[in-house]
Amino acid sequence: MNRFFRFAQHGVLIGVLFLVLSGCTTHKYAATNRVYKKQVRSFSKLLRTYPIKDSFTTATPWVGTTNFSIRRPSLVVIHHTAQTSCDQTLRTFTLPRTAVSSHYVICRDGTVHHMLNDLLRGHHAGVSKWGGATDLNSSSIGIEIDNDGSEPFSPDQISSLLNVLGYLKRAFNIPQANFVGHADIAPGRKVDPSRRFPWQELSKNGFGHWYDTVGVNVPEHFNALQALRIIGYNTANEKNAIQSYKIHFVPQDTTKVINDADRKILYSLLGKYQ
């Protein structure tokens, strides 16, 4: 009997120790992770019930098509966080009142936080347009890089970014032209991922296009603004469109005018984006 009580006491102590240790190692985002899982489950439930219970139909019985697939991202939008730390950004993206999010956050040391399933809709693009598309949150992946907008991007960040982009390109067959910045899709409203971002390096790795003006002869009647529009820029406000183009392709130039060098660049790019 005494041995039984000793065994029971020992088991209780082990249980208490396990609970204590578990409490000590609880992930600080455990609560918001539970919210994430609950919301994903609610979407899953909606998908199971919607075709029969909530769709508009006057026919009985319901007939479901065999030809469909889940929506897949076709565009990647790169941002800088404009905040002071990765932790600050993670907190921002886990507060319901902010209503903003991104699929990936890449910290200064290269750590990658995958915060949202790639097939789900993030809240990162805002009011934006690229080509003829306007609801870009529904078709894009958002990647936030921990950077306040005035500092260089670390080699570790770019290395991790290239790995993530490679995965996304392979997984979803995303065209090279469809890797853009927030400034590209929101001219005049956004300037990220800043003039310090290494777009040329990304292009060399197959993410976004770059130009080559060697031997380029621009036709006399070449329309530079039309080229901007064909590439994807919203040219409703010409100066804003030019600014966003320069943030991406000519970061050292802060003017909002098209010069002869720009005409060469745009003519070169036009052949790649058409």
Can you tell me the overall shape? Answer: globular
The assigned structural class equals alpha/beta
**Biggest sheet features:** 5 strands, mixed
Helix and strand element order: HHEHEEEHEHHHHH
Taking pLDDT < 50 over at least 5 consecutive residues as the criterion, the unreliable ranges are: 1-23
Number of strands: 5
CATH topology of the domain at 72-184: Lysozyme-like
| Average pLDDT | 88
C-alpha-based Rg, rounded: 25 Å
Query: What distance separates the N and C termini?
Result: 85 Å
CATH architecture type of the domain at 72-184: 3-Layer(aba) Sandwich
Report the CATH C-level class of the domain at 72-184.
Alpha Beta
Provide an overview of this structure.
- 43% of the residues lie in helices and 8% in strands.
- The protein has 274 residues and is an alpha/beta fold.
- A 5-stranded mixed sheet has the order 3-2-4-1-5, sandwiched between helices.
- Strand 2 and strand 3 (112-114) form a beta hairpin.
- The longest helix is centred in the first third of the chain and has 25 residues, at 30-54.
- The radius of gyration is 25 Å and the shape is globular.
